[in-house]
Amino acid sequence: MSDTSAVTQWVKDDSSLEQYTTLLEWMVNNGGQLHESVEIARDEQRGVHLQVKKDWKNRVLSNTHIIKTPLTATMSYFNAIGCSFSTDDGGSVSFPEHGLHLPHAFVEAVGQEDSSIFFLIGQYLRGNESFWYPYIRTLPQPGALTTPLYYEGDDLAWLENTSLSPAREQKDKLWKERYENTYSELCKSGFEGAEKYTWDLYLWASTIFVSRAFSAKVLSGVLPDTQLPEENVSVLLPFIDILNHRPLAKVEWRAGKDNVIFLVLEDVAPGEEISNNYGPRNNEQLMMNYGFCLPNNPCDYRIVSLRAPPGSPLQMARSQQLQMFPGLARETDDHYYVFNVFYPLLAPDTPMEHSIFSPALFNAVSILAANNRELETLEVSKQVIRIPDTYGNSRAILAALSQIIIELITHVVKLKSSADDLQNPRNLKQTHAKVYRDSQIMLSETALVIAAWTLNRARHHSFGGSWEETKQLLSSHMARVPPGKFPDEVKSRIQVRILERQSILASNGELFVLDDLIEILPVEMQGPCKACFQGVSQNAERDIPMLRGSSETSPFAFPMFLCFIRAAHSAGESRLETTSLPSRLSKWARCLLENYPAPPNDVLWALEDEDDEKLLDVFDTVLEAMKTRNSSIFSNLEKFTGEWQGDNWWLSPNWLRWAWMITEQESVQVPEEPLDLLAAGGPGQGKVVLSTASCLYIPQ
């Protein structure tokens, strides 16, 4: 359709749409087209947009060509250099400069990207004399853009403690450096009117290209592959670029010989908006590049800033990967994400935890949290650096989850605390920033529920994992989420995410506090063990002032238990015992003795940490006194542990130091009641107090 007198049929009766009427006329005059079922409309929520006419009798069917933007209307680097190309059919296509001639030396010096930006600035400065004037006047003008680089004054407070704040500073610095260099080259070239090419206009034009341009692939219908640059050439497509973004909208752009076609790949009903799809962009990308974000963006995810400390196992593994596979290791860095529970772009076999925490993030934290035994098994390949899933390595999973939970809690607390002084948004930028902040909090809080679920399973020792048991435990877990905390669809989705995907944690009940440990011993051992541990702890509390009031969290509890298991296992191996350890504990004891060699009999060990050594030295004295004063405590265990009256008994100084070191390696500091955070941090709800419990890891 090319009759300009018919253009008004495409525009809803709204005088404020005059600029878009003119743009449409201009596009049609240059050979473009808008499908007859579609109209331009405006409302408060969506702004200017395209929609199927409400009185249109039929749905617009999939594969309908909605817009055809003529190649002659596009703007790109090819216009900046005023070039022409021969087509396969013997014709040619030209991309004229339309009255703006950038010096060749300038273009050569600054490259394709900045040449395009300065070309747009030049056409903007030409005003109504520019060929693209009908298009440029519909673009957001310099004072109307809302990306973070345009935040100033009170607006900046809304970015505080979000990842947008450092990203904004970094981008501002980068673009200003580029502008200074590019502007210097323009002045050096002797270009008349160079002083008009200001930083403000550079910021505006750069933002327009970032937020609205398409890749050079949209010109593949006329440009030979050999002349089609893969990067640094972006193309502005007038009229197509007024479409709003809808995540997962099914659309396509097709390059033709005379135009670029936008078509829908799904049916659209009368009155519904025709949307574009900018790709699976998260809210941070939408804010940085487009100046808006979505409150319910299914493609949202948070980028986690995780640096490998110099000399850490993760840093060394990365270096090894880079040496083994140059280039690939760099490409796989920094894919550290926390995903929305609705995130749709997951492989069907993605484990439950990896559907929320990207595999790269989870593996990196696992390596940083791994003990020396687990690091011995570290795998470095082209695809991944990870702790493999073998016996005893699920401790790294649980330690990683604990660290991730602490990061999630810290993130939420930082965002909530920095919002204490923020009032209701006063402008569009602050409104978008509030949506962004709220979505970031939602991401971390929903991820927290899922991470806490896996840790919860690790502390339930009677949980068999059947479908009915899982549903009951999950119901109890979700009951800890404050009523009304999440919308029903979000709460439901959390449960679906947990139930529909297999966990990377194959076994349940692998983390223990002292009372739990006693219960996994044979019945005959439980009473004597409990009496022994309690008696020793009480004596230690009395004789060591710094331990008073800590009988339930005695630092000697786990080492004593480890010493007992080692002794009972050795007695069993020597067939001296009357009661055998369960196979799980025997297997664990063998693993410990293989990875942590027994101490010598003829040399006294000492811990490297002086404070720990002093504490154990005093504890040794307490034990020696008890061997005389409370001998029954140890004699009642003799049938399980063997001889206890000599120097090399089961709680000897060397065995205690052996067990002390193992405790440091084989324990996990688990956040206590992490879901309590969900009810804290709001007005009048008090501060968040995060406490952890030391749990001993015993693999299944």
Automatic annotation (TrEMBL):
Residues 36-279 form the SET domain. GO terms for molecular function: protein-lysine N-methyltransferase activity. Signal peptide: none annotated. InterPro entries: Set10/Efm1_SET (IPR044432), SET_dom (IPR001214), SET_dom_sf (IPR046341), SETD3_SETD6_MTase (IPR050600). This is SET domain-containing protein. It comes from Aspergillus coremiiformis.
